Here is the input.
Amino acid sequence: MKKKNILVAEPEIGKDELNNVIKALKSGWISSRGEYIKKFEKNFAKYLGVKYAATTSSGTTGLHLALLALGIKKGDEVIIPDLTYIATANAVAYVGAKPVMVDVEPDYWCIDSQKIIKAITRKTKVIIPVHLYGNVAEMEKIMKIAKEYNLFVIEDVAEAHGAEYKGKKAGSLAHIGVFSFFGNKIITTGEGGMVVTNNKKIYERVNFLKNQGQSTKKRYWHPEIGFNYRMTNLQAAIGCAQLKKLNFFINKKRKIFQWYKKNLADLKNIKLNTQRKETKSVYWMVSLVLNKDSCKKNDRDNLIKILLKQGIETRTFFYLISEMPMYYKKNSNLNSVARKLSQNGLNLPSGSILKEKDIEVICEILKKNLL
Ligand SMILES: Cc1ncc(COP(=O)(O)O)c(C=O)c1O
Here is the structure.
């Protein structure tokens, strides 16, 4: 029998998810109405300690709705990190605004608050810090800058469910938080997302826009162009079961990080995720950055090939947003920290189903090829 590959982030779906989906199917409520939608929203808001949570069809549509709810439009600028998944930038483009890419921190890989100020212009309306790979951005400083310059802040929490900053959950630290429940995320609904906020007006606006801009008072009356960005009751049924296991998943991810750290301690030419002092990371992706200068034996891309030959899947860090054709910036080499990380970073298998033995096998291969 062929040995099973080790994947980067395999979802862990159990009996509770199955039972909930069967119950939802049997109820007949298979689209975007039904008991699980409200339950998932209520329980998610409670978990984060926020007043409102609105399910969406994905993290990307959640970001789009968040920007729309803040009234962001053509002519506005939105500051984002250069090192992030494409959805952060695309959501800005969907509303006609311009994404302005800022460099990230060398240790924590999130947007560099010191470099944000230089990127602010009269057109700037929003900052979107991304909690990359489960690390948490420097939210206190970012919120201070936002207050000083009268800007909104949307946290992109797609990769950091349950992470904390000074005891408060990521997603509850700014004006809006947006989560993704894609299959590789810490908890999943297959596809799906959530917009969270303490602001009732924003919450109502998000719900209005995601539901085809339908009046809440008059059915089939649409005073504005809206979207169908709703989550289904079937997805929410999975989400309710997954949410109950979120703390278990996070603890497992932290354990996986410790296993990697212990087994790779001899390697001096790499750097793993670093947790900022005032934060608790959730290690969505345990990641490794190679020091290109001191690691002569293999570069990052070689390492990926070597691991894949042994059935171990890894991922490169994201390409820079400023490198993409539609956002290309000639002077993107100004974001030199992000560029270096993007070229030398690697996401290791981090799914909660992994066992200590799996990590040991991966680390042996890494050591053999990096020492
Ligand atoms: C940082 C970041 N933002 C946004 C998204 C978009 O989420 P989704 O794939 O659910 O649209 C993702 C997920 O893939 C992500 O990693």
